[in-house]
UniProtKB/TrEMBL annotation:
Transmembrane segments: none
Protein name, per record: NAD-dependent epimerase/dehydratase family protein
Any GO molecular function: oxidoreductase activity, acting on the CH-OH group of donors, NAD or NADP as acceptor
Domain NAD-dependent epimerase/dehydratase: 10-247
Record keywords, A-Z: Oxidoreductase
Organism: Christiangramia aestuarii
Highest rank taxon of the organism: Bacteria
Length: 352
């Protein structure tokens, strides 16, 4: 059981990220010194939101230039830290070479940070941002589980470089983390495994995140004929940040945590927006028929392969989130609040 001293600095890798921003805010408000490891600390537009939060919080932020692929580049940032949050990882569906752009950075980055933890005196705990993608690839897999729901003891065995390489990269990266963790005795490892993350970004101008392109499509007419009834899990970015925080500072926390609030699908996401935005925006409230998707899907979006459509459309997604509720006392926000707060940010910033 790791008891973390809050007077010591805490490292957050990928500090300018979507989840990391809310985590940094939570740490600063708690009066903690945050060592923010970022690729480009000089890029004002990447860090100004964090500086703004730091100015109004009792905590302090210090930036360190680090790169996932450079060995030893986290040494300085980790100095003096008992707690490390490793949130940095590639998340994109726009790639030409999945091994080079997803798998290598994911696995090598994780290896880099965790081997640095081995070399840095005093590190007691690492909290890794993993994903439900390390647990499953397609919603159809839920039907094959003992209780028809995903749990923390399941691992993704179906993704590959050719099929859902993002999920494959998350699986390999998390497995690498547990392997490095088991080979030493100084620090314990906890993983946070979120489903699809939505909610307001602290830096809307930098929202390159995948969830935002989906959100944008819910409002820009892409789905005005209907949305694919794709089974997914959904969780609020603020709840994911809180989950990281609690995983870091709850001494008894251990293992993996499915961090997912709602078992849902794309059509329900549209329905959640409908009451407030339905009159002004073409939010989808009906499902596109599966046969039509099989016909047009692959032409509309390269990620909508026929295999993916067969395995996810009209399939119910379910995960058991009782462990995180019990161990870390996480209370999840209602879906409508998450969806409305996210959508409003896009409107306020003229993104839709």
């Amino acid at each position: 059981m790791a008891h973390i001293d809050k007077t010591k600095p805490v490292l957050v890798t990928g500090a300018t990220g979507y989840v990391a921003g809310w985590l940094v805010k939570r740490l600063l408000e708690d009066g903690i010194t945050v060592h923010a490891a970022v690729r480009d600390p000089e890029k004002e537009e990447k860090v100004h939101h964090l500086n703004g939060i730091a100015e109004n919080s009792p905590g302090t932020i210090k930036y360190f230039r680090s790169d996932l692929l450079d060995e030893g580049s986290y040494a300085e940032a980790m100095q003096g830290c008992e707690l490390v949050f490793h949130t940095a990882s590639p998340f994109t569906s726009e790639f030409d070479d999945p091994k080079k752009e997803l798998v290598d950075p994911g696995v090598k980055g994780t290896k880099n940070v965790l081997q640095q933890a081995n070399k840095t005196e005093g590190v007691k705990r690492v909290v890794l941002t993993s994903s439900c993608a390390a647990i499953y690839t397609d919603a159809i897999e839920v039907e094959k589980t003992p209780d028809n729901k995903l749990t923390e003891d399941m691992w993704n065995t179906t993704a590959s470089l050719d099929y859902q390489p993002y999920s494959y990269s998350k699986t390999l990266a998390e497995k690498k983390a547990w392997e490095i963790n088991r080979a030493q005795e100084n620090w314990d490892l906890i993983t946070i495994n979120p489903s699809l993350v939505m909610g307001p970004p602290l830096n809307p101008r930098a929202t390159t995140s995948e969830s935002f392109s989906l959100l944008k499509q819910l409002g820009d007419g892409t789905f005005k004929m209907g949305a694919p009834k794709l089974g997914i899990g959904l969780v609020d970015v603020r709840d994911v940040a809180e989950a990281h925080y609690q995983a870091g500072f709850t001494p008894s926390a251990k293992g993996r945590y499915i961090t997912s609030a709602h078992n849902t699908n794309f059509v329900k996401l549209g329905e959640a927006l409908e009451p407030k935005y339905g009159d002004s925006y073409p939010v989808p409230t009906k499902a596109l028929p599966k046969w039509l998707l099989l016909l047009i899907g692959p032409y509309v979006n390269k990620n909508l392969s026929r295999q993916f459509i067969r395995n996810n459309v009209n399939k119910e997604w379910r995960a058991d989130n009782s462990k995180i509720k019990n161990d870390l006392n996480i209370k999840f926000r209602p879906m409508q609040e998450t969806m409305e707060d996210s959508f409003q940010v896009l409107i306020d910033n003229n993104i839709i």
